[in-house]
Amino acid sequence: MDDLKQRYLGQIAEAGDEAALESIRLAAVGKKGEVALKMRELGKMTPEERQVAGPALNALKDEINSALAAKKAALVDAALDARLREEWLDVTLHARSRPRGTIHPISQVTEEVTAIFAEMGFSVAEGPRIDTDWYNFDALNIPGHHPARAEMDTFYMHRAEGDNRPPHVLRTHTSPVQIRAMETMGAPMRIICPGGVYRADYDQTHTPMFHQVEGLAIDTDISMANLKWVLEEFVKAFFEVDGVDLRFRASHFPFTEPSAEVDIRCSWEGGTLKVGEGDDWLEILGSGMVHPKVLKAGGIDPDSWQGFAFGMGIDRIAMLKYGIPDLRAFFDSDLRWLRHYGFASLDQPTLHGGLSR
Ligand code: DAH
Question: Are 151 and 263 members of one domain?
Fold first, then answer.
C-alpha cells in the first residue's frame, strides 16, 4: 500500500494539466482503479486482516483524492496566472507635463478688463497701431500747433521726399480708436479699445511701447454720473475689493469737456500697495465727457448725442494689481520673470470664475 501511495502521489505531483490528473484519478481511485481492485480483495481476507486493511485502503483513497483536489486547484491557479500574464495591459498614462508657456501679465490684465466691461455691455473695438496724425491728433481736437503733440513724444513715420500721403505716427494713445469706432458703428455705442501705444520715453515707469484701454459710451442721456458708476464698478471688480473711494480731479484733455483725472484711495504701508484703504491717492486714468468737436469728427451729431470717455494704462494697473515694480521688465522677455509673473494658460479670467487665481 505504501508503494501505491508513493507512486500515485508522485504522479500527481508531476501532472502537468487536468487531463493528466484525470487519467491518474481513473487509474488510482476510479471504479476500476487500483484501489478499487484492492478493495475487492478484502473479501478474501480474514476478519482480522480486513480490519487492518479496510481502514488503511479508505485512508489511502482519501489521501489520493485530496492530493488530486489540491493539485487540481493549483493547476487552475497556475492557468489563471498564465492567462493574466498573457493578457496584461498597461492602463497607466504618462502624466502630462504642465504647459511650458504662461500668459503675460499684460494679456492677462487685458482679458480681465475685457471681462469686466463685457459684463457692463461694452464690446471690444480695435484700431491700427500706425495711424494718421489726423486720427491720432486732429480728430481728437489736438490741432497742429497744440502743445499736447509735443508733450506726447510722438514717433513719426519716415516719409521720403515727395511722398505726399498724410503723415503717419505710431499712435500715442488708444483715443484714435474712438473716432474709428464712431465712423463704423455710429451712435449709440459702448466700447472699450485695448492695445499697444508708443511714446519716446524710457525709465522705470515708462517704456517706448506700452498699453492702454480706452472706453467710450455714447447715448442721448449719458453724464459724468454714468462715468463715475462705471469706473467704480470697474475698480471694485478689477482690484477684487468691496469698497473703493474714487477721487475725480478736474483736469484738462483736448478731447473731453469737462475732463477729470481719477485717483483711487490706497495705502503704501510696509512698502506694499493696498487698494481701497489708507490715506494716499493714486492716479489711474484720464476721463471726461466727449468734446462736441470729437463727436463731429467721428460723424456723430453733438446736438443729439453725448458720451463719456476714459483712457487707462493697462501696464500701470497690472503693476498695481500684481505688485510688479519695474515696467521695463514687462518687455525684457526674461523667461524667469515670465514664469514668475505669468498666468496659467488655461485659466481664463471671468467674473463668475474669478479674475485672477
Ligand atoms: N488719451 C489720454 C492719454 O493718453 C488718456 C485719456 C484721457 C483718454 C481722457 C480719454 C479721456 O478717453 O477722456 O493720456
Answer: yes
